# Entry
Amino acid sequence: MTNQEQCHEAQTFSGGKLIAGALVAHGVEAAFCVPGESYLEVLDALYDHRDTIRVVTCRHENGASFMAEAYAKLTGRVGVCMVTRGPGACNASIGVHTAFQDSSPMVMLVGHVRREDIGREAFQEVDFEQMFTPLAKAVRMVDRTEQAAADVAWAFDIALSGRPGPVVLILPEDVLRETAEACIPAPLPQESSEMDEGALERIHHRLNQAERPILMVGGSRWTAEARADILAFAEKMDLPVCCSMRRLDIVDNTHPCFVGEMGIAPNPNLLQRIKDADLLLVVGARLGEMTSQGYTLLSPEDSQHKLVHIHVDGAELGHVYPPAVGVACAPAAFAKAAKSLPPASTHWAGWRAQARADYDVWRRPDPVPGPLDLGRAMQDIDKLLDDDAIISVDAGNFSGWAQRYLTFGRNRKFIGPTNGAMGFGVPGGVAAKTAYPKRQVVVFVGDGGFGMTGQEIATAVQQKQNLLILVFNNGIYGTIRMHQEREHPERVVATDLCNPDYAALARAGGAYGDTVETSAQFLPAIESALAAGKVAVLDVRFDANIISTRTTLEAIRNAALERDAKSETEFEQD
Ligand SMILES: Cc1ncc(C[n+]2csc(CCOP(=O)(O)OP(=O)(O)O)c2C)c(N)n1
Ligand SMILES: [Mg+2]
# Structure
C-alpha cells in the first residue's frame, strides 16, 4: 500500500499545513528550531498544533540539531529539528553528522529558496542535496505541495528503519505557501526482523565450544525489553558483557555480568580479556574506530575465527571485520530469541567473575592530588543521583570521570556523542528534560564544550527546566593538550582557555550558579543546586594537571621529554 492509499479523504491544505499535520500524525511531541522566514508557513501551521507539539526555540542551530539527536537517542523516536536555508543548515550540520555516526533516527526540515530561483545562487541558497549526501542517511527536496505530507512519512520511515539515521527534507518556500489537495498519511509500519533459527543454533554451538566468550553490546534500537532480554541471556549463560563506546546504559552496570566499557581509554584488563577471548559476540555495535582501539582490537584472521556479529544492517557485517558468523538482525530480535536458548555447557568457570572483579577494581578511584578529588566526587554523586536520572555527557577527557565511575542501566540513562562531537552535553540535557520533564537530568561538560553550546542554558531557562550542569573547568582544551604534550612536549599552542565566571554567567541568565573548588564543597553544592528548582550551573574548577582518570599532564610531558632525549642520543650515536 502506498502512502497515498492509506488516507481516506483528501482536503486542500498549504504545504506548511501538510508538513505540520504529518508531524502530528507521526506522534511528534517536540521540535527543536531556530526560526527562519524561509519556513514561516510550517511555523504558522504549528501554531494550530501548539498543544500537541512543543516548539523549543534554541539559540543556535547546533544546539537545535544536537537536541533532536539526543531526543532520538534517548527515546528511540524520531528527533525533529527545523532550520533555515544555508546559514541555519550549516550551523545544524553537526547534529546530522552525530545522528549518522550514532545511528539515531532524526528528521531535519530545512527551509529553502523558491523553486524558480534554484540554481541562481539566490539569497542563502545552498545545494543541500550535495551538502548533506555524505552526512545524512537520505536527502530529499519536497518539490510538489501535494507530496509534502507523504515526503514526511517517507523521511520518518527511512530515519527509523534498518540502521537508524538522519534524513534531511528540503522545503522550498513556495511549496510551503501553495495549496494542494492531499491527505495526511498515517505512519508506515516498521519492519520487524526475526532472528534466523539456523544462525541462532550456530551461535549456540559456538557458545558450547567456547572457553573464553565475551558479549559486547552497542549501537542503537535497544528497547527496554531488548535490554532486559540481553541481560537475561547473559545471566543464563554466565557471560561477561561489555559495551561499546558511550553505550553505557544498555545493561545494568551493577549486575555481576557487566564488566565495563570499551571506550577511548578502556580498562587495560578488559582490553586484554577481549584479545584473549575465543568468542566475541557483538550485538548491535559497529566495532567503530574507538571501540576497536584504532582497528587493533582484532586482526582479520582473529575475527574470522572468533567474531559473531549481529547488526541490523547487513552491509555492516564484514564492513571492517569479516565475522565467523554474521547475522543481519535487530538487537531486540536477537535478544528475544537468545534468552530462550538452553544454558551452554559452560567451560569458563571463573572467567565472568574475574572480568567483573577487574571492573570492580577499575571503578575504585585512586586518590587524586589537589583540593578536589574528582574520583571520590564521582563516587559521591553516583550515590546521590536518582536511580532514573538521565546523564548527558559531552566529549572530552573530563567525560572519563562520569564514564568510569558512575553507574548506568536499569533506569538510569546515559547519553553522549559516540562520534566525539563537542557541544552535545547542554543541548542533550535540554532534550532530556523536554522528553522527560519529571526526571532528574544532569549534564557533564568541559569548559571547551560549554563554550560551544553553553548558550542553550538560555533555552533551558526559557523552558523552565530544572537542569543541573556541571562544567568541568580546567582552563584548557585538555584532550588536545594531552595529545600535544605527548607528541610535542612543552610546545603549548592553541589549547589554553580564558574562561568567564560560569556561576556569575548563569546567574545573569536567570539560572542558579555556584563554584566548587574542593572535595568538601562538592556534595553540598550539588544538593543545593538540585534543590534550587531551576537551571543550575556548577563551575567545577580543578587543576589542569589532572588530565584524565588515569594520569597527569606532568607524567605525559616527562615521558615524552625522556623519549625525545633518548631518540636524540640514539641519533647522535648513529
Ligand atoms: C566540535 C568539535 N571540535 C573539536 C573537537 C576536537 N576536540 C576533542 S576534545 C577537545 C577538547 C575538549 O575540551 P574540554 O571540553 O574543555 O574538555 P577537556 O578535554 O578539557 O576535559 C577538542 C577541541 C571535537 N571533538 N569536536
Ligand atoms: Mg577543559
Q: What stands out?
A: Residues 446-448, 474, 476-478 surround magnesium ion (ligand 2) (CB under 6 Å). Residues 553-573 form the longest helix (21 residues). The chain has a mean pLDDT of 96. The first strand starts at residue 11 and ends at 14.
